[in-house]
Amino acid sequence: MTTRLDQPREIRRTLVPRPHYDPESFGRLSERIARFLGTARFLVYMTVFVALWIGWNLVAPSALRFDPYPFIFLTLMLSLQASYAAPLILLAQNRQDDRDRVQYEQDRSRNERTIADTEYLTREIAGLRIALSEVVTRDFLRSELQQILKEADAKDQHSPL
Asked: Which InterPro entries match (predicted)?
C-alpha cells in the first residue's frame, strides 16, 4: 500500500510492532486455498487421511498408537482445519462479490453507452429519412422521365411533318 504525500502519517506507538502484510496477496492466497477446499481432490485426500489415521490407531500395536479410540486428537485437528477454512472461504467469497460488483457496474455503464449510441443512430436515421423524403429518388425521376417521353411521343404523333 502506498502512502499519500498530501496527508500526514498517523503516528502509532505500540509496545509490540504490528505485523504488516499485503492484503491483495493474502486475498489471492485465500482464494487459492478456498478453491482447493472445494474440489473432489481435497475430499479424497481428507478421506484417505482420516481413514489412515483411524486405521493406524485401531490396528497398530499399542505402543505405536498415538490417538486411542475416541480419536480426540483427530477431532481437534479437524476442528482446527474447519476453523481456518471457514474464514478463508468467506474472504474468497467477499473478494468474488467485489469483483462481481465491479463487473456489474461496468456492464451497466456499457449498456447505458450502447443505449445512448442506439438512440443517437435512431435519430440520425430518422433525420436521413426526413431529408430523403424531400430529395428526388431514382424511381420518381425515372417515372417522371417516362411520362415526359410519353408526352413527347404523343406530340410527335399528332404534329404533321
From this structure: DUF1003
Domain housing 98 = 23-154
- Alpha-carbon Rg for the chain in angstroms: 40
Position 115 in a domain: yes
Whether the pLDDT of residue 140 is over 80: the answer is yes
Q: Please name the amino acid found at residue 144.
A: E
Q: Which of 65, 63, 45 is nearest to 55 (CA)?
A: 65
CA neighbor of 49 nearest in space, from 85, 83, 73: 73
Percent of the chain at pLDDT above 90? Answer: 60
Domain presence at residue 62: yes
- 47 in a structural domain: yes
Residue with the bigger pLDDT between 92 and 137: it is 92
- Residue 6 DSSP symbol: T
69 and 57 in contact (C-beta within 8 Å)? yes
Total domains in the fold of the chain: 1
